[in-house]
Amino acid sequence: MIKIIDLKDEKSRVAFFSVLAAIALTSIKIIVGVWTNSLGILSEALHSGLDLVAAVITLLAVRAADKPADKTHNYGHGKVENLSALVETLLLLLTCIWIIYEAVHRLISGKTDLNINIWSFIVVIVSIAIDYSRSRALSRVAKKHNSQALEADALHFSTDIWSSSVVFIGLIFAGFGFFFADAIAALAVAIIVIYVSYKLGKKAIDALLDKSPEDTVSKIQTILDADKLITRYHDLKVRTMGAETHVEMNIHVTPGITIEAAHKISHDVEQEIVTAIERCEVHIHIEPEDSVG
Q1: What does the alpha-carbon distance between residue 282 and residue 126 come to, in Å, rounded to a whole number?
Q2: Nearest one of 127, 126, 185 to 156, comparing CA atoms
Q3: Which of 109, 123, 250, 267 sits at a 20 to 30 Å CA gap from 292?
Q4: Distance set, CA 234 to CA 193, 199, 221, 286, 288 (Å)
């Protein structure tokens, strides 16, 4: 098991502990949710259950995405992370369908009675604490390794913090006899999840469709515009594949310079871009200024 997961790898390690956290959260929420008949807690249990599936997918994705390029995957396996993030989005949307249906049904039917006790509040407080810890850990490693899969998993856990807080407020109102507040809190959870799903899904689809990341393109253009040895450039193409960024471009240089000089200009530009953008691969085609671009 350890050989497959490789707990010595930071990305795999943080993803593995997120799986364990999701298992614990899902279990305690189901038990307390069924015991108290709280839709808010049950919706959180389903949310955590899908977080568990997402955490497992993330763990497998970060392992697969780090495989080097081969004969059939010339650009590597980074798209696995983007695909993982898209799957997590779909799982989040499935959560919303059930939460909205059950909340509306309870509000219409009036079946909103709950069995509120101290454990209802304890499970939500513990959930918020664990979610906060996992979200920070995942965000830190995601930023360090430019991992979209870990970033998506971090968003899952951070969303749980907000949704658990809403459920907590609903439980407080239910404790004073306003049981309908629990169903309303569940609807609020669904709205939060839909919003996060949209953000995750859009980012994943953009990467899968090779949409150029605007911030990265802007960084590269700034570098090129500042280089006095480049007379102009064109056909700048940027795409991401998981944690990897691939850049292609044509640059024009003063005609008549030696091949060595042109190569040095190209090499220096490449080094500047690689320094500014982590895990970046750059391909540059050099042309003399008087050629037609």
Answers
A1: 46
A2: 127
A3: 267
A4: 41, 31, 10, 11, 13
**What confidence category does residue 4 fall into, taking pLDDT thresholds of 50, 70 and 90?**
very low
The pLDDT of 40-63, averaged and rounded, is 75
| Cβ atoms of 186 and 102 closer than 8 Å | yes
Indicate the pTM of the whole model. Answer: 0.62
Element (H, E) at 290: none
CATH number given to 2-208: 1.20.1510.10
Residue 3's pLDDT is 44
Residue 235 has pLDDT above 80, yes or no: yes
By C-alpha distance, which of 291, 197, 204 is closest to 250? 291
Domain ranges of the chain: 2-208, 214-288
Tell me the C-alpha distance between 130 and 48, whole Å. Answer: 12
CA-to-CA dists, residue 140 to 46, 69, 167, 234, angstroms: 26, 26, 27, 35
Query: Length of the chain in residues, anyone?
Result: 293
Q: What is the H or E stretch that residue 145 is in?
A: helix 118-145
Span 133-159, pLDDT tens digits:
888 888 888 777 777 677 777 877 777
Predicted confidence band of residue 265 (pLDDT cuts 50, 70, 90): very high
Give the pair of three-digit tokens for residue 190. 């669904």
Bridge partner list, 232? 252
Which two tokens mark 175? 């404790």
Q: How far is CA 289 from CA 120, 128, 262, 286, in A?
A: 71, 60, 12, 9
Q: Are 167 and 189 in contact (CB under 8 A)?
A: yes
